[in-house]
Amino acid sequence: MSEPSESGVHRLKVDEVVEETPDAISLVFAVPDGGEFAYRPGQFLTLRVPGEHGGSVARCYSLSSSPHTDSAPRVTVKRVPGGHGSNWLCDNATAGSIVDVLAPDGGFTPKSLDGNFLMLAGGSGITPIMSIVRSVLAGGDGRIVLLYANRDEQSVIFAAALRELAARHPGRLTVVHWLETVQGLPDESSLRALAEPFADHEAFVCGPGAFMDVACGALEPLGFARDRLHVERFLSLAENPFERGGEPEPAEPAQPDATVEVDIDGARHRFDWPRRQRLLDLLLERGIDAPYSCRQGACSACACRISGGEVSMVRNDILEQEDLDDGIVLACQSLPVTDEVHVSYE
């Protein structure tokens, strides 16, 4: 991967555009000779797309390639009715196009490729799951059961690739297709019946909001612990991380700075924390290599744990109440409430 600019933006060349279905494409990026593109299965890229009225917009698309099997990274984009980013890319991206991207990020990724996995995907939700499937089959030793819901046969992204993988790994990969035109919309009881024999697997769920609600409702009674159930939601960014500007939020002179202790990468750091400065901005300003991606509270890349004190979040579109109860917050949205705060990335 090319070296990022000072702003953390990489410029990548599109090597190939692959038509996956009539309304979905994959962009295969060229990696310069001697370059490196490090990512984990299930992560995403944030792309800069020209805006409708000048400037640009930022859109996040999951990597469908595997770092264990593919020499070049690729993201898969499905047209969304009225979606500017997806339609612009499907209509305009060609081999040779140059695209600005942020570094790969996201937490929808297995800690280990070993073990057994239950995957539930709806529509374009197959994209990060495909990356995980390819990686587990190449680098792991367990079994994968994939339940994949689509409108009809023509809308099944990666249909041929899934057939090939299942044929190559008959004892390890089972793919169950659910077609709305044949079976109607998936419901909780039907998905639960399909998933129940695999309730001891690690589960990954991704797709449109309605599908996610049904899939999570189907799995909840089966006793999946939080560390075995991973959910990825596609959300729009409220701001453009490629065009961050304006004046920093002013400090409130009536309130003295808080103090934060941060455990990260085996080291502990202690800083004064201005009341109106978000935690991620403070850490980056102090030279701490804290993880992040969208900086808008729409992904979980910057998630950390509050082990002491209290913070408030300006925005949260991704964390569930269980996460909040466990002390998990988004660093990019966190402001101090108490005078002392302890944060852990360990």
Plain-language structure description:
- InterPro entries: 2Fe-2S_ferredoxin-like_sf, 2Fe-2S_ferredoxin-type, 2Fe2S_fd_BS, Beta-grasp_dom_sf, Cbr1-like_FAD-bd_dom, FAD-bd_FR_type, Flavoprot_Pyr_Nucl_cyt_Rdtase, FNR_nucleotide-bd.
- With 346 residues, the protein is an alpha/beta fold.
- 20% of the residues lie in helices and 31% in strands.
- The strands form 5 sheets. A 5-stranded parallel β-sheet has the order 9-8-7-10-11, with helices on both faces. Strands 13-12-18-14-16 form a 5-stranded mixed β-sheet.
- β10, α6 and β11 (229-232) form a beta-alpha-beta unit.
- The protein is globular, with a radius of gyration of 21 Å.
List descriptors.
single chain; 346 residues; alpha/beta; Elongation Factor Tu (Ef-tu), domain 3; Rossmann fold; Ubiquitin-like (UB roll); 3 domains; 5-stranded parallel β-sheet; 5-stranded mixed β-sheet; 31% strand; 3-ketosteroid 9alpha-monooxygenase subunit B; 2Fe-2S; EC 1.14.15.30; MRET; oxidoreductase
